[in-house]
Amino acid sequence: MNALLAALAGGFIGLDATSFPQAMISRPLVAGALAGWIAGIPAEGAMLGAVLEAFHLAILPIGAAKYPESGTATAAAVFAMALSNPTHGAGMLLAAVFALGWERVGGRSVVLARRFNEHIAPTGARLAHASTITLRHTAAMLIDFLRGVIVTVAGTGLGYVWIQIVDSHWVFGPATAHGLLLASAAGCAAAALRVFGGWKARWKLFVAGAIAGLVAVIA
């Protein structure tokens, strides 16, 4: 895995969430697929991203709301999974658990970055100078990019240690790990039904999804 490319991807994913370009690259599904491609495990990365996407369907990052940063956490989890190369079948489950915890750290880093931006924002007479506003805005974007790099790199290291330790003690087999992962993702997806119109509007899709999930678990 190209470490420099992974770090740059983490920075860009963190930047996309709010600063630029807000092109949905920071969504878990896209971030996971991108990280998987960089790490050489495209299928696993996309699968982990899809699972984590289900956990975030009901989270709406609107305005100044505080929310977990899922994009950098997903990328870090995929990179950690690729580096750890788990052998007991629980790698994806452990990566997902780590991502759900690490995204809280990422969310906190967003708040801290915004607090820092308050100190560099132009005020008073400096607001009249377009060049000053452009410079400070560019600086804020650069800070956000570096924040994404740090969160992703640190998360990759910690996630690697987490997966290595826990996977070596996993005794329940891959079927149990996959079942827990699918059941959790399905439950979160069902909880997000209200965001898409509720039971009355989407019950057919819900039933179809539940049947597909049961088939996947049984298979």
Oligomeric composition of the shown chains: single chain
Number of distinct helices:
8
User: By helix and strand content, what is the structural category?
Assistant: mainly alpha
Radius of gyration, whole Å = 19 Å
Task: Spell out the helices and strands N to C.
Answer: HHHHHHHH
Poorly predicted parts: none
Topology summary:
Elements: H1 3-18, H2 28-39, H3 42-55, H4 70-84, H5 91-120, H6 130-167, H7 173-191, H8 198-218
Helix pairs in contact: 1-2, 1-4, 1-6, 2-3, 2-4, 3-4, 3-5, 3-7, 4-5, 4-6, 5-6, 5-7, 7-8
Keyword list:
219 residues, 0% strand
What features would you describe in this structure?
With about 220 residues, this protein is mainly α. Helix content is about 75%, strand content about 0%. It has one domain. It has helices at about 5-20, 30-40, 40-55, 70-85, 90-120, 130-165, 175-190, 200-219. The longest helix has about 40 residues, at about 130-165.
The gist of it:
With 219 residues, the chain is an all-alpha fold. It has eight helices and no strands. The chain has one domain (3-171).
